[in-house]
Amino acid sequence: xxxxxxxxxxxxxxxxxxxxxxxxxxxxxxxxxxxxxxxxxxxxxxxxxxxxxxxxxxxxxxxxxxxxxxxxxxxxxxxxxxxxxxxxxxxxxxxxxxxxxxxxxxxxxxxxxxxxxxxxxxxxxx
Length: 126
Description:
- The structure is a single chain.
- By secondary structure, the chain is an all-beta fold.
- The chain has one domain: Rieske Iron-sulfur Protein (3-layer Sandwich), CATH 2.102.10.10.
- The protein is built from no helices and 11 strands.
- The strands form 3 sheets. Strands 8-4-3-2-11 form a 5-stranded antiparallel sheet, with no helix packed on it. A 3-stranded antiparallel sheet has the order 1-10-9, with no helix packed on it. Strands 5-6-7 form a 3-stranded antiparallel sheet, with no helix packed on it.
- A hairpin with a 6-residue loop joins strand 5 (76-77) and strand 6 (84-85).
């Protein structure tokens, strides 16, 4: 099965569902042919989304469902390995990392967060 080459814009959640440094909104994606979890967060007023896969060892990172921020609310942290990532870029900022998180393009308009699919990141039901 080949992946679509054009991106689509899909409504992901309401803006009010994401609080600064709060709980994430999870969603399923097909990444390079595999079904995976992803998450959207709000940090410093902006929305970001990433594949829920640590760059150190590819496993889900949340320490409780939809919880990714450390106690300071300034870093995304892998509960298993302690790797720390920048919420704005997904870049590794400490701990055992090999690169950064896989970024997923999102935007926010009129109270809705939208996911912009990509060739290697598609909805499960494509």
